[in-house]
Design brief:
The protein has 173 residues and is mainly alpha-helical. The chain contains five helices and no strands. The longest helix is centred in the middle third of the chain and has 35 residues.
Length: 173
Protein backbone atom coordinates (compact mmCIF):
# COMPACT_ATOMS: atom_id res chain seq x y z
CA UNK A 1 0.00 0.00 0.00
CA UNK A 2 2.77 2.45 0.94
CA UNK A 3 4.65 1.56 -2.23
CA UNK A 4 1.60 2.47 -4.34
CA UNK A 5 1.18 5.72 -2.42
CA UNK A 6 4.82 6.67 -2.98
CA UNK A 7 4.48 5.94 -6.69
CA UNK A 8 1.31 8.02 -6.77
CA UNK A 9 3.11 10.94 -5.13
CA UNK A 10 6.03 10.58 -7.54
CA UNK A 11 3.65 10.69 -10.48
CA UNK A 12 1.91 13.69 -8.94
CA UNK A 13 5.23 15.48 -8.48
CA UNK A 14 6.16 14.89 -12.11
CA UNK A 15 2.76 16.13 -13.27
CA UNK A 16 3.04 19.22 -11.07
CA UNK A 17 6.58 19.88 -12.31
CA UNK A 18 5.33 19.47 -15.88
CA UNK A 19 2.51 21.93 -15.21
CA UNK A 20 5.04 24.28 -13.66
CA UNK A 21 7.24 24.18 -16.75
CA UNK A 22 4.20 24.81 -18.98
CA UNK A 23 3.02 27.71 -16.84
CA UNK A 24 6.44 29.35 -17.04
CA UNK A 25 6.12 29.60 -20.79
CA UNK A 26 2.59 31.03 -20.69
CA UNK A 27 1.94 34.74 -20.18
CA UNK A 28 0.24 35.41 -16.83
CA UNK A 29 -1.79 38.30 -15.52
CA UNK A 30 -2.70 39.44 -12.03
CA UNK A 31 -6.35 39.62 -10.90
CA UNK A 32 -6.27 43.35 -11.75
CA UNK A 33 -5.32 42.45 -15.33
CA UNK A 34 -1.71 43.70 -15.29
CA UNK A 35 1.04 41.55 -16.74
CA UNK A 36 3.13 39.58 -14.22
CA UNK A 37 6.90 39.57 -14.43
CA UNK A 38 8.59 36.23 -15.11
CA UNK A 39 9.80 36.19 -11.48
CA UNK A 40 6.25 36.77 -10.23
CA UNK A 41 4.97 33.96 -12.46
CA UNK A 42 7.68 31.63 -11.16
CA UNK A 43 6.91 32.52 -7.54
CA UNK A 44 3.16 32.07 -7.99
CA UNK A 45 3.63 28.72 -9.71
CA UNK A 46 6.03 27.48 -7.06
CA UNK A 47 3.60 28.43 -4.30
CA UNK A 48 0.80 26.59 -6.10
CA UNK A 49 3.05 23.58 -6.57
CA UNK A 50 3.93 23.57 -2.86
CA UNK A 51 0.22 23.72 -1.97
CA UNK A 52 -0.53 20.85 -4.34
CA UNK A 53 2.26 18.75 -2.86
CA UNK A 54 0.97 19.38 0.69
CA UNK A 55 -2.54 18.43 -0.40
CA UNK A 56 -1.38 15.23 -2.11
CA UNK A 57 0.82 14.39 0.85
CA UNK A 58 -2.15 14.66 3.23
CA UNK A 59 -4.24 12.43 0.95
CA UNK A 60 -1.48 9.83 0.92
CA UNK A 61 -1.17 9.92 4.71
CA UNK A 62 -4.95 9.59 5.02
CA UNK A 63 -4.97 6.63 2.65
CA UNK A 64 -2.08 4.96 4.46
CA UNK A 65 -2.98 5.49 8.12
CA UNK A 66 -5.52 3.04 9.59
CA UNK A 67 -7.35 5.51 11.83
CA UNK A 68 -10.74 4.93 13.37
CA UNK A 69 -13.11 7.88 13.65
CA UNK A 70 -12.05 8.79 17.18
CA UNK A 71 -8.34 8.65 16.30
CA UNK A 72 -8.86 10.65 13.11
CA UNK A 73 -10.65 13.42 14.99
CA UNK A 74 -7.60 13.80 17.24
CA UNK A 75 -4.88 12.97 14.69
CA UNK A 76 -5.60 15.54 11.96
CA UNK A 77 -5.30 18.67 14.12
CA UNK A 78 -1.88 17.43 15.33
CA UNK A 79 -0.93 16.63 11.74
CA UNK A 80 -1.97 20.12 10.62
CA UNK A 81 0.17 21.74 13.35
CA UNK A 82 3.09 19.50 12.39
CA UNK A 83 2.76 20.43 8.71
CA UNK A 84 2.47 24.14 9.56
CA UNK A 85 5.81 23.93 11.34
CA UNK A 86 7.26 21.85 8.51
CA UNK A 87 6.20 24.58 6.07
CA UNK A 88 8.16 27.15 8.08
CA UNK A 89 11.32 25.06 7.72
CA UNK A 90 10.60 24.52 4.04
CA UNK A 91 10.09 28.26 3.54
CA UNK A 92 13.66 28.78 4.76
CA UNK A 93 14.84 25.89 2.54
CA UNK A 94 13.07 27.47 -0.45
CA UNK A 95 14.71 30.84 0.24
CA UNK A 96 18.09 29.10 0.46
CA UNK A 97 17.48 27.38 -2.89
CA UNK A 98 16.57 30.71 -4.48
CA UNK A 99 19.74 32.25 -3.06
CA UNK A 100 21.74 29.30 -4.38
CA UNK A 101 20.14 29.57 -7.82
CA UNK A 102 21.29 33.19 -8.04
CA UNK A 103 24.88 32.44 -7.09
CA UNK A 104 25.83 28.83 -7.91
CA UNK A 105 27.58 29.70 -11.18
CA UNK A 106 29.89 32.21 -9.48
CA UNK A 107 29.88 30.80 -5.96
CA UNK A 108 32.85 31.55 -3.75
CA UNK A 109 34.32 29.03 -1.32
CA UNK A 110 32.80 31.01 1.56
CA UNK A 111 29.35 30.95 -0.07
CA UNK A 112 29.62 27.21 -0.71
CA UNK A 113 30.61 26.62 2.92
CA UNK A 114 27.72 28.76 4.16
CA UNK A 115 25.24 27.09 1.83
CA UNK A 116 26.03 23.51 2.84
CA UNK A 117 26.08 24.35 6.56
CA UNK A 118 22.72 26.10 6.35
CA UNK A 119 21.26 23.24 4.27
CA UNK A 120 22.39 20.66 6.83
CA UNK A 121 21.08 22.84 9.67
CA UNK A 122 17.67 22.70 7.97
CA UNK A 123 17.93 18.90 7.92
CA UNK A 124 18.62 19.04 11.66
CA UNK A 125 15.62 21.36 12.13
CA UNK A 126 13.40 18.81 10.36
CA UNK A 127 14.72 16.01 12.57
CA UNK A 128 14.19 18.09 15.71
CA UNK A 129 10.65 18.88 14.61
CA UNK A 130 9.90 15.17 14.18
CA UNK A 131 11.33 14.44 17.62
CA UNK A 132 9.23 17.25 19.10
CA UNK A 133 6.04 15.85 17.59
CA UNK A 134 6.50 12.18 18.51
CA UNK A 135 4.90 12.69 21.95
CA UNK A 136 2.19 14.88 20.40
CA UNK A 137 1.14 12.11 18.04
CA UNK A 138 1.48 9.48 20.77
CA UNK A 139 -1.12 11.39 22.79
CA UNK A 140 -3.69 10.81 20.05
CA UNK A 141 -2.70 7.46 18.47
CA UNK A 142 -0.71 4.42 19.58
CA UNK A 143 3.06 4.28 19.50
CA UNK A 144 2.89 1.88 16.55
CA UNK A 145 0.65 4.24 14.60
CA UNK A 146 2.93 7.12 15.52
CA UNK A 147 5.91 5.14 14.20
CA UNK A 148 3.93 4.29 11.08
CA UNK A 149 3.07 7.95 10.50
CA UNK A 150 6.69 9.03 10.79
CA UNK A 151 7.78 6.25 8.43
CA UNK A 152 5.24 7.44 5.87
CA UNK A 153 6.17 11.07 6.48
CA UNK A 154 9.88 10.34 6.09
CA UNK A 155 9.38 8.37 2.88
CA UNK A 156 7.31 11.15 1.36
CA UNK A 157 9.85 13.77 2.49
CA UNK A 158 12.70 11.77 0.95
CA UNK A 159 10.80 11.43 -2.32
CA UNK A 160 10.20 15.18 -2.45
CA UNK A 161 13.82 15.82 -1.47
CA UNK A 162 15.05 13.52 -4.24
CA UNK A 163 12.93 15.31 -6.83
CA UNK A 164 14.11 18.67 -5.56
CA UNK A 165 17.77 17.58 -5.50
CA UNK A 166 17.51 16.36 -9.08
CA UNK A 167 16.48 19.89 -10.13
CA UNK A 168 19.29 21.75 -8.30
CA UNK A 169 22.62 21.96 -10.15
CA UNK A 170 25.68 20.70 -8.31
CA UNK A 171 28.32 23.23 -7.26
CA UNK A 172 31.23 23.29 -9.67
CA UNK A 173 34.75 23.47 -8.18
Amino acid sequence: MIKNCVYTLALGLYLVMGAFAFAQSSPQTTPSGSQMTPDQVDEANIQLMRQDIRSERKKLVAASMPLNESEATKFWPVYDRYIAETVKINDVRYALIKEYANSYQNMTDAQADSFIKRWLALDQDSTQLRLKFIPEFQKVVSQKKTAMFFQIDRRLAMLIELKLASQVPIVQP
